[in-house]
Amino acid sequence: MTAAVLLAAVTGLLAGGAVAPGEVWPALTGGAVDPTTRHIVWQLRVPRVLVALVAGACLGLAGLVLQAALRNPLAGPEVTGVTPGAVLGAVAATAAGLAGWASPTAVVVAAVAGGCAGAGLLWLLAGRDRSDPAAVAVHGVLVSAVLGGLTAMVLLVAPGELGSVVQWLVGTTEARTWDHWALLWPWALAWGAAAWLTAGPLMLLRCGEDVARAAGLASSRARGFALACAVGLTAGAVAAVGALGFVGLLVPHVALALLGADLRLALPGAALAGAVAVCGADAVAQLSSRAAVSWGAGHLSIPVGAVTTAVGAVVLLAVARRHTTEL
After folding, report:
1. Which residues fall within 8 angstroms of residue 119, CB to CB, at 6 or more apart?
2. Contact at 8 Å (CB) between 62 and 85?
3. What is the pLDDT of residues 51-105, one digit of tens each?
């Protein structure tokens, strides 16, 4: 898995335009390249790759924590109100003039507040059906739809902000700088470490409430802490790169398939798999953009969120058809 992360990072560094692949390594090592090339590599490509890796790790880890805490394989930041809530918080704060891409700290605060509100709304609506995976999934879709509608209303009220918030709606790594990286990595490290500490309690929760109580676990408190970790991780990723579809939903299944059900291994695996997924999708988006421009499409920049959504939808459809055939 570590080799896959390194491969995705190298591919991301080489995929961008304006600098030939052969000039990237000399620019990284201080070789004989012009200042413009060195600036593009160090100030644009490197932070973009680092932000993509860490944001993907946050989403993969948050997805597995949610699925384990809710005992629902269909749970994920995208369909539990966390991502739509974080997007709504960021968009509303931007429309009100309280946040923006120039003030990433304010964006994180707004995204966290929105993510907590989305998760709390789902928790309230689910009520006694919280232990039913199908019911939670249905309520999650409803909550996500409501929050998406509220986001659209905010954009209608403040249409002048559309250009500045479309990045949150689709998800992109364009123009990420060292400022974004400096804010994201300590946030991700803190919440990631906290999420890893939930591995033991989450394994008990997956066995059922009765087993967890028999082992002396305060299930409500443990589940609440796990959900707080998922919200924090998701909000940090959304504040950095926007809403990337299907990463938090599908990456945990990859980690479990490769590493097994032991969350002490699967949680770090989900983080690595998420990093590979987002950084790889970003490389695909950059290569696709360059190909489209060479074919006469003009200045076209395909966002990474479009790639993750398209690929994720295909994978989800294939998995659903496979399970239907098996049944």
Report:
1. 80, 81, 82, 85, 227, 230, 231
2. no
3. 999 999 999 999 999 888 888 887 888 777 888 888 888 888 887 777 665 666 7
